């Protein structure tokens, strides 16, 4: 949609990912006769669909990439402007875009997401996976690869090493166990055998529809602007197959190690390492690890988290930044600049959180923050008061790892509890893994892997903080129907 070079909107939201789209939708529906602008660098926006409230705090939904026209058709007062922000003048309440637009706002919400924290910049052999384009580049490179090195221990690395077939994977994790971000060594032990088993046949359908961009957007090179982050099903519909015919998984894990140095083929041959390393082969790139080993490979995947996308907004303004470089927001999602809010991966929760909640840069939190930020902006305009939403009371996340359903609740990894915690574990190999975190007899967190059907009961026990001391280990006795027990 064409806009005048200068335009004023009551509400402007930057970012077409889950946080930005949810925030803009919230505002557009609450103020149907007010102009709302959604400014985004990428040609497609992310839309939440099939939203399901699984329990009080657990939610599940799918995400689809859609053309922005879908949003404009749904909300006649919502204008999607495809242009990347290059500068923000917080005092003047204006944004400047790379296309020379100047946009004035009364209230602004920054939802510009994050970008992969790469091991090294500008190395053609180091890839990060963030959006659909980078996932497709990965797939293309993988199809010709015989060995890759994957660095990182978060959700992306976990999914990737499980899904890749026909290619040897050297998985470099800095921790003692895999999946440290999401669970403990016990759960890792439970999941590890899945790497050596055949994967179930996958449905041929693709949940994430990819739209082809035609016309000016494609030719102006706008597709190179950062797209939205992918979510849990990012590998669905794309074949993650390497160049080798074998389908047996070829994953080896290098624990407690990091990449010390990366060598090109040429540099490697000239280095003393070439004579020290056994079985060097001939590879385009080599990764020297801190554990002393060196691996040649076709390319390296850097899956070591994200850095909040704050640059275009910082110059000349005085945002408080958190230690992780996110825009610090208070319990109304407000940054330290007047009339500027932030939500999703770009922000860091700066309020004193509930003892059962922590921020993690996840899809669900991007949606919750975007929605809540929209409500706070509305409340501010209407001079209404608003309480921190209930979704920030208890951390809850539902996902799939290694084809198992995974539910994480509260302080699922004993975060911040130190020695002041007791763990109860029930594990049936290949079937389920249940871990409960207790402190002072009260349940503070849980990890549920497999079809345990315990999420609702445990969520209630965590929320009501009932003293569970009398039940002891019976809590996880598989012969007791715990749901009936606490009814
Ligand atoms: P984003 O989705 O990154 O959106 C940012 C938006 O801002 C984009 O539209 C971008 O174009 C726009 N933008 C950026 N800069 C500018 C600018 N200067 N001007 C204008 N617009 C700009 N989460 C889970 O919960 N479960 C998972 O299993 C999971 N798996 C993941 C797998 C991968 C490969 C990745 C990369 C992420 C995964 N995540 C997962 C994380 C999840 O996708 C993100 O937390 C979430 O999508 C963040 O949403 P967001 O709206 O904050 O940011």
Automatic annotation (TrEMBL):
Domain NADH-rubredoxin oxidoreductase C-terminal: 398-465
Keyword list, A-Z: FAD, Flavoprotein, Oxidoreductase
FAD/NAD(P)-binding domain sequence ranges: 10-190, 287-370
Transmembrane segments: none
Keyword ATP-binding annotated: no
Presence of the UniProt keyword Transport in the record: no
Gene Ontology molecular function terms on file: oxidoreductase activity
Classification via InterPro entries: FAD-bd_OxRdtase, FAD/NAD-bd_sf, FAD/NAD-binding_dom, NAD(P)-bd_dom_sf, Rubredoxin_C
Gene3D superfamilies listed in its UniProt record: FAD/NAD(P)-binding domain (3.50.50.60)
Reported cofactor(s): FAD
PANTHER family: PYRIDINE NUCLEOTIDE-DISULFIDE OXIDOREDUCTASE DOMAIN-CONTAINING, PYRIDINE NUCLEOTIDE-DISULFIDE OXIDOREDUCTASE DOMAIN-CONTAINING PROTEIN 1
Protein name as it appears in the record: Pyridine nucleotide-disulphide oxidoreductase domain 1
Gene: PYROXD1
């Amino acid at each position: 949609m064409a806009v005048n070079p200068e335009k004023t909107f009551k509400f402007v939201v930057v970012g077409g990912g889950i946080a930005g789209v949810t925030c803009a939708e919230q505002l557009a529906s609450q103020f149907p006769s007010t102009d709302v602008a959604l400014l985004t660098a990428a040609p497609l926006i992310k839309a939440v669909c099939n939203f399901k409230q699984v329990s009080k705090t657990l939610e599940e939904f799918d995400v689809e990439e859609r053309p922005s026209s879908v949003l404009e058709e749904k909300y006649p007062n919502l204008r999607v402007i495809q242009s990347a922000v290059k500068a923000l003048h917080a005092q003047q309440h204006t944004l400047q875009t790379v296309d020379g637009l100047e946009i004035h706002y009364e209230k602004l919400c920054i939802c510009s997401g994050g970008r992969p924290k790469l091991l090294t910049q500008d190395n053609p052999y180091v890839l990060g996976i963030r959006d659909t384009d980078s996932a497709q580049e990965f797939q293309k490179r993988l199809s010709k690869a015989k060995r890759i090195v994957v660095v990182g221990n978060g959700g992306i690395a976990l999914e990737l090493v499980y899904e890749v077939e026909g290619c040897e994977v050297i998985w470099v994790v800095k921790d003692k166990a895999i999946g440290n971000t999401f669970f403990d060594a016990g759960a890792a032990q439970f999941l590890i055998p899945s790497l050596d088993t055949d994967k179930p046949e996958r449905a041929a359908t693709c949940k994430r529809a990819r739209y082809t961009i035609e016309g000016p957007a494609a030719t102006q090179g706008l597709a190179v602007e950062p797209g939205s982050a992918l979510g849990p099903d990012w590998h669905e519909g794309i074949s993650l197959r390497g160049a080798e015919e074998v389908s047996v998984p070829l994953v080896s894990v290098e624990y407690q190690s990091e990449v010390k140095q990366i060598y090109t083929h040429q540099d490697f041959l000239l280095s003393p390492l070439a004579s020290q390393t056994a079985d060097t082969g001939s590879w385009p790139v080599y990764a020297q690890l801190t554990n002393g080993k060196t691996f040649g490979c076709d390319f390296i995947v850097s899956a070591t988290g994200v850095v909040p996308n704050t640059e275009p907004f910082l110059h000349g303004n005085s945002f408080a930044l958190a230690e992780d470089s996110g825009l610090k927001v208070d319990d109304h999602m407000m940054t330290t600049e007047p009339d500027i809010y932030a939500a999703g991966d770009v922000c860091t929760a700066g309020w004193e959180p509930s003892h059962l909640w922590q921020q993690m840069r996840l899809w669900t939190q991007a949606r919750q923050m975007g929605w809540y930020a929209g409500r706070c902006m509305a409340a501010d305009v209407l001079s209404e008061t608003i309480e921190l939403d209930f979704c920030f009371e208890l951390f809850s996340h539902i996902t799939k790892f290694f084809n198992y359903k995974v539910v994480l609740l509260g302080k699922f990894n004993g975060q911040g509890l130190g020695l002041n915690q007791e763990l109860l574990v029930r594990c049936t190999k290949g079937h389920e893994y249940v871990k409960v975190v207790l402190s002072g007899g009260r349940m503070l967190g849980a990890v549920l892997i497999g079809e345990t059907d315990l999420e609702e009961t445990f969520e209630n026990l965590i929320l009501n903080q009932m003293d569970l001391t009398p039940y002891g280990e019976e809590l996880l006795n598989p012969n007791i129907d715990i749901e009936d027990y606490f009814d």
